[in-house]
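User: I'm writing a tutorial on reading structure tokens. Could you give me a worked example: one chain, its sequence, then its tokens, then a sentence or two explaining what the tokens reveal?
Assistant: Sure. Here is the example chain.
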Amino acid sequence: MPGGPQPALQPRHRHAHAAHPHLRSRRAEDEDAIASQRKSLVSTGDRSAKIRTYNYPQGRITDHRIGMTVYNMDAFMNGEIGDMVEALQFAENAEKMKGDQQ
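And here are its predicted structure tokens:
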């Protein structure tokens, strides 16, 4: 070991104590950002935000995103959903094309 004066070292707890308020505020900001993102991904559950309605007494299904109504619920519930899937794909492609033109 070389001789001479040694630098004074501060204990780790002193640094940690000084960093806590900064870390605490940063953590709160991160949690707020995560909560905001999560809230934007989750629907409100409001009736106006519905995607599809199944009306059993009248035997109809309405997809509110594209405004399509199918009046054969039994077939739809047994897996004959091709018409609805095609309409959804068509609407999605139209939306993509509209976005590309802008």
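What the tokens reveal: The radius of gyration is 29 Å. The helical segments are 12-41, 73-77, 82-101.
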